[in-house]
Amino acid sequence: MERTMRVVTLLIRFLAIATITFSIGLCNGNLGWPPLCKESERQALMMFKQDLKDPANRLASWVAEEASDCCSWTGVVCDHMTGHIHELHLNNFEASFESSFGGKINPSLLSLRHLNYLDLSQNYFNETQIPSFFGSMTSLTHLNLGCSWFDGVIPHKLGNLSNLRYLNLSGFDISNSNLKVDNLQWISGLSLLKHLDLSSVNLSKASDWLQVTNMLPSLVELDMSDCQLHQITPLPTTNFTSLVVLDLSFNSFNSLMPRWVFSLKNLVSLRLSDCGFRGPIPSISQNIISLREIDLSYNYISLDPIPNSIQNMTGLKVLNLEWNNFNSTIPEWLYSLNNLESLLLSYIELRGEISSSIGNMTSLVNLHLDGNRLEGKIPNSLGHLCKLKVLDLSENHFTVRRPSEIFESLSRCGPDGIKSLSLRYTNISGPIPMSLGNLSSLEKLDISGNQFNGTFTEVIGQLKMLTELDISYNSLEGAVSEVSFSNLTKLKHFIAKGNSFTLKTGRDWVPPFQLEILELDSWHLGPEWSMWLRTQTQLKELSLSGTGISSTIPTWFWNLTSQVEYLNLSHNQLYGQIQNISVAPYSIVDLSSNHFTGALPIVPTSLEWLDLSNSSFSGSVFHFFCDRPDETKQLDVLHLGNNLLTGKVPDCWMSWQYLSFLNLENNNLTGNVPMSMGYLQLLQSLHLRNNHLYGELPHSLQNCTFLSVVDLSENGFSGSIPIWIGKSLSLLHVLNLRSNKFEGDIPNEVCYLKSLQILDLAHNKLSGMIPRCFHNLSALANFSESFHGSWGLNEAEFTENAILVTKGIEMEYTKILGFVKGMDLSCNFMHGEIPEELTGLLALQSLNLSNNRFTGRIPSKIGNMARLESLDFSMNQLDGEIPPSMTNLTFLSHLNLAYNNLTGRIPESTQLQSLDQLSFVGNELCGAPLNKNCSTPPPTVEQDGGGGYRLLEDGWFYVSLGVGFFTGFWIVLGSLLVNMPWSVLLSQLLNRIVLKMYHVIVEYV
């Protein structure tokens, strides 16, 4: 018996050891059975790899040696029992271009017959179509091609993948995606599909999108955001019984909100942001208790008040109604949603006060009430919201006599209290309250854009947990010492620009923090550099604009900035030469408005933004632009204007293809505009004003089809205005060719420029007539703003500028450029009549046609141009009367009609009579503001419309008198000629009568 037991025990131990060994072998792939890598599948993967572009060498483990086990390769998952490849995880985790796969997808994947999971998302298959052979990989249950830059029509064969549970074909955004469908019927066969993501795919031709997706019974998540959808039809029967997530954001339905979306009983997340929905929110079924997120932001929903049907959703976590038109008070029932974590009610015209009941919403983490018309005092109960991480009450009308009331109500939260506080632009005044120091857990503090005054108190130094501090754009002043920062060991972001602080620290001071963002614009730091800056080696953003530094840039500074992504040292008194600029890749550098001299510095090819304007850089620009011709420059914005640069405009623009803004104005550049500038196909703004350039414009510029602003004024360009400007540059908003030598007619093609807001062709040699088609310049005919002209990258913002001579003064427009609309054709040799069609430019604010050879009358409908502020028709040959409609120009503050052939009375209006007499000199005009009265004309003559004279009705008497006198004179004279004495006496008498009549006639005339 004992022997039998021993045998059984040994057998059990053997089986246990064998089992463990077998299991370990399976896990480590050391056993030969079952095989862990099928040779045919390994070969298929190698063929697949050969057609891929792999710049980061992510597939280094995929090698051809037979000993290499493909189941251990990167991204490959095998079945441990069969050895077949089941999953390929080849998505780009880092989502960076440098680590993206590209190239082509080899059909060898068809050999992986057991593959059920394929993920190629976040890669860069630029301009290649999704392979149609994917539709033959019927074992797939999971296919993710999202955000991989595929192109063209999605193949219908994907509808053969009847086992699919997950399908993601999304793009990055619709503006960068060329992925589209011609219909969605192929989806109807995917009956097992649970997750469908077609976001940023062009579905504009799929009018049946809703009917098709409604027939997918297993669908749990549907994402069709940003798909150019335009219709959302009613559903007679809603089959979305399993739907949990619905995202239709960023489409253009422009309709009432559909009722069926609020009847989906299992729905947890509803996202309908920026869909153009209008009208009320439909009534919400009481059976819907599963909703946790509602996002209806950026629509035109108008309802007063917020619908109380939402109050039944007691489990709601996120409610986002931002940017709608509610125009109501905050309803009391809203405060009962005590499970809400995010309440976003920004910019919806809320009015009234915040109720003290807000203290019941103790779960709130994010509260946004900014951009409304809320008023009154901030309730003390706000201090009960101890879980808050973000609070934004900016841009309201709160009345706070004592700013400390805000902070006192928030000081009760204890160690787990509020994490973030934003009071931007609430116009709160007074000193920074001492009670602020009680917020011991505060991590982020933003009180920017208010009217806080006083000094940088030590209370801020008590906030030991503070990581982000923004006190910018207040009225704070005084000295700041190193004591204020002694406890701020965790501080990462310190933004305090727009105040009048003076920093006073010891030369050897070492701050207790390592900052990532430092912005001290307008502080008093100079004239020497603050040596403590040398210790801040982690800086990503540094802005010291207008801080009074008067020095050269020290060598150690460029070592400090090697990781900086935003550098602003503008508006100081920095001088000396700059050899190199050392910053992080894709950075922004603003060194404008200083006193630098010498040649332009060497800059990294990866720099994205550079402003060296308003300084004294000199020398040729050749080396700056043409050195390293084989390296593509990443610069997007380049401003070198207002320097002393010389030489020709370089002919090496081939490597500057990313430029969108180029400003070389007010230098001493010479020569022609080179043909290679046509390579700047992304260029939006070109400023070459006030140089010494000449010649004709190269036709290659017609390749720059994104141009919005072109300023070539004050040079020596010649030839005719190119026809291609109107044909190719259809996005032009500003065209300034002033003070050059252009000649010939204005081409009719200029009328194609529908977006043109400023046209300045003054001081050239243009001839011909004003094109009658100018009324087609729709941006000058419509009142809507159509031009923004600004560039924004991170902290930097660059505003477009344009110069327009209006009211006789040269004015530069920047921030309000989008509202400026003017036309100047003065000082040319143009002739003919001013076309009546020109008065169709109803939005025009400034019109100058002076110093030409225009004839005829002022257009009778000139009064239709009611927005005119400046009008100059002087120094022409216009005749006739001033049209009565000119009295409608109530905005007119500058008028010049001098030195024409105008006649008659100046129309009476408050506006015209308030103008200077010089506006009307050199004409035959009368009436105020001239001193010449318009008296009643004599009965003999009347001035006609053409400037001549005609006889009055009673003038016939004088005609008859003349004829009678002529006849009688010769009868009497003839009879007396034979009697000389009598003839002499009679002759003397007649002379006296004639002289007297002559004087009478002269007086009347």
From TrEMBL:
One of its GO terms (molecular function) is kinase activity. PANTHER family: LRR RECEPTOR-LIKE KINASE, LRR RECEPTOR-LIKE SERINE_THREONINE-PROTEIN KINASE FLS2. The lineage of its organism: Eukaryota, Viridiplantae, Streptophyta, Embryophyta, Tracheophyta. Gene3D superfamilies: Ribonuclease Inhibitor. It is found in: Cell membrane. Residues 40-79 form the Leucine-rich repeat-containing N-terminal plant-type domain. SMART domains: LRR_SD22 (SM00365), LRR_TYP (SM00369). Belongs to the RLP family. It is a single-pass type I membrane protein. SUPFAM superfamilies: L domain-like (SSF52058), RNI-like (SSF52047). It comes from Pyrus ussuriensis x Pyrus communis. The chain crosses the membrane at residues 956-978. The keyword Manganese does not apply. Keywords: Cell membrane, Glycoprotein, Kinase, Leucine-rich repeat, Membrane, Receptor, Repeat, Signal, Transferase, Transmembrane, Transmembrane helix. One of its GO terms (cellular component) is plasma membrane. This is LRR receptor-like serine/threonine-protein kinase FLS2.
